[in-house]
């Protein structure tokens, strides 16, 4: 329990520590310690912004997810390059609602970020009840296909990673 | 050999950034233009940063990892700003192209 009190958000602490070391581009002892101190103090002072505890069930899945996203970004970039260089009048832009199955706020946030990062789609709004995401797409052939893609590639892995408590 | 890879990566990055800018210029409405920068900021900047990391890890002492941080901050801030701009645009009803598909009413 004492560990929980010092590190209310262990993952946040770890990430802050790594970022500090990367910012200084060094592994010198002084920075290791200073970064460690910051990694303890910053989660303390900001813990009111993070009311719920996010539980990572499978950290390795998160790393796998990052690589899946990077790959998808590359593929989508090439698709969207063709769309942009082609005739604008052939594009069918549009909005659609994506019904969320995720419940954890961090998970929803990550999904919305991923959707915006992937070229071709931008997440525009989250409904009041956190049940659906409004998405704008540069070109829509088949809404059902796009939704199925998002679900298969991004939402299902995220659902496995984040468990809200 | 490494020079060739670096050159290729930089050219690739420049190409995708250029396409992003072209998109910003020629797409017809605000919502569609939003898609331009998300392209440029992912693969375009990504390729250039990989090239930079490779180059400086090879020439300077030690591994250069600053580039990872740039990627990280970019990947955090770019989607958030795009999301907020889209949300604001919907709120003040920025004009859309006529053929824009509307969301199914719920």
What features would you highlight for this structure?
heterodimer, A: alpha+beta, 2 domains, three-stranded antiparallel beta sheet, 6 helices, 15% strand, elongated, B: 106 residues, mainly alpha
Commentary on this structure:
The complex is a heterodimer of chains A (165) and B (106). Chain A is α+β, with helices and mostly antiparallel strands and 165 residues long. Chain A has two domains: 2-51, no CATH class; 55-164, no CATH class. Helices cover 59% and strands 15% of the residues of chain A. Chain A has six helices and five strands, in the order H-H-H-E-H-E-H-E-E-H-E. Chain A has helices at residues 2-6, 10-24, 29-46, 59-85, 105-117, 143-161, and strands at residues 54-56, 94-99, 121-126, 132-137, 162-164. In chain A, the strands form two sheets. In chain A, strands 2-4-3 form a three-stranded antiparallel sheet. Chain A has a two-stranded antiparallel ribbon with strand order 1-5. In chain A, a hairpin with a 5-residue loop joins strand 3 and strand 4 (132-137). The radius of gyration of chain A is 19 Å and the shape is elongated. The two termini of chain A are 17 Å apart. The mean pLDDT of chain A is 81. Chain B has 106 residues and is mostly helical. Chain B has one domain. Chain B has helices at residues 2-26, 30-33, 35-59, 66-91. In chain B, helix 1 (2-26) packs antiparallel against helix 3 (35-59) and helix 3 (35-59) packs antiparallel against helix 4 (66-91). Chain B starts with a helix and ends in a 15-residue tail after the last helix. The model of chain B has no long low-confidence stretch (mean pLDDT 82). Classes of the chains: A alpha+beta (165), B mainly alpha (106). At the A-B interface, helix 2, helix 4, strand 2, helix 5 and strand 3 of A face helix 1, helix 3 and helix 4 of B.
Blueprint of the fold:
The complex is a heterodimer of chains A (165) and B (106).
Chain A lengths: L1 H5 L3 H15 L4 H18 L7 E3 L2 H27 L8 E6 L5 H13 L3 E6 L5 E6 L5 H19 E3 L1
Antiparallel strand pairs in A: 1-5, 2-4, 3-4
Helix pairs in contact in A: 2-3, 4-6, 5-6
Chain B lengths: L1 H25 L3 H4 L1 H25 L6 H26 L15
């Amino acid at each position: 329990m004492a560990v929980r009190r010092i590190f209310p958000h262990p993952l946040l602490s770890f990430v802050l520590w790594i970022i500090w070391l990367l910012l200084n581009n060094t592994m010198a002892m002084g920075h290791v310690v200073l970064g460690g101190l910051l990694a303890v103090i910053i989660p303390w002072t900001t813990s009111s912004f993070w009311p719920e505890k996010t539980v990572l069930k499978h950290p390795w899945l998160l790393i796998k997810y990052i690589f899946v996203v990077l790959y998808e970004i590359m593929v989508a970039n090439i698709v969207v390059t063709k769309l942009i260089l082609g005739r604008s009048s052939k594009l069918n832009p549009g909005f659609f609602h994506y019904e969320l199955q995720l419940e954890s706020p961090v998970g929803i946030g990550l999904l919305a970020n991923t959707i915006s990062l992937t070229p071709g789609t931008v997440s525009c709004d989250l409904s009041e009840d956190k049940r659906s995401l409004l998405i704008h797409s540069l070109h829509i052939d088949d809404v059902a296909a796009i939704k199925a893609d998002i679900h298969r590639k991004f939402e299902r892995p995220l659902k496995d990673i984040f468990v809200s408590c | 050999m490494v020079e060739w890879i670096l050159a290729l990566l930089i050219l690739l990055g420049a190409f995708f950034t250029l396409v992003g800018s072209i998109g910003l210029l020629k797409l017809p409405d605000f919502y569609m233009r939003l898609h331009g920068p998300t392209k440029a900021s992912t693969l375009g900047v990504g390729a250039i940063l990989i090239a930079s990391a490779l180059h400086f890890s090879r020439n300077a002492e030690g591994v250069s990892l600053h580039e990872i941080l740039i990627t990280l901050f970019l990947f955090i801030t770019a989607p958030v700003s795009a999301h907020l701009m889209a949300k604001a645009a919907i709120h003040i009803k920025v004009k859309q192209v006529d053929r824009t598909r509307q969301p199914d009413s719920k």
